[in-house]
């Protein structure tokens, strides 16, 4: 079943470059492992938010659901690595998440709102890249798995946005527009490290 991603593409400020897709296909084991890292980090971030922001029932329930799904995806990617005979190797963190988090406001609830907006962009970008890879990857099992992830990743991005808006008395549109520009610059500009969320290969 084809998933309509037009709303994801509209949300993002730039599409992934062909040069990144080509580099990712040529370095698939690295991309697969970094994908596993991303799922683990997403679960860890959501867990940290659960402990820091215990005042909201809706937030706690949604974060608990996200943690379960992210850890399931982590386990699934580990299984793919194992089946491919791929060993776990050290990978340094890329610039992507740090490049957005450095613009996070430092007071509450603004900091939490920004973290959730950043989470929305990370999930939307993941969704866009899964779709791009699934179109060209020469591994039907992996392509099928990436297509399977599209629905959940696109829902996660909407969940993060809804949570961010629920914590703000004012519209979050201005902050979303700000991070849209920041994220697009990180994705489009040259990057010396290839990662799942890296920019155009330098």
Describe this structure in words.
With 202 residues, this protein is an all-alpha fold. The chain is globular, with a radius of gyration of 16 Å. The chain has a single domain (16-192), classed as Ferritin, core subunit, four-helix bundle (Ferritin, Up-down Bundle). It has a two-stranded parallel sheet. The longest helix has 27 residues, at 57-83. It has helices at residues 6-11, 18-26, 28-52, 57-83, 96-101, 110-136, 140-166, 173-188, and strands at 190-191, 200-201. The N and C termini lie far apart (36 Å).
The residue ranges in which pLDDT falls below 50 over 5 or more consecutive positions are none
The total number of structural domains is: 1
The CATH homologous superfamily is named Ferritin, core subunit, four-helix bundle
Order of helices and strands: HHHHHHHHEE
- Major sheet, described briefly? 2 strands, parallel
Mean pLDDT over the residues: 93
By DSSP, the count of extended strands is 2
According to CATH, the fold-level topology is Ferritin
- Helical percentage: over 70%
Give the termini distance in whole angstroms.
36 Å
Approximate strand percentage: under 5%
Which class best fits the helix and strand makeup?
Answer: mainly alpha
Separate helix tally: 8
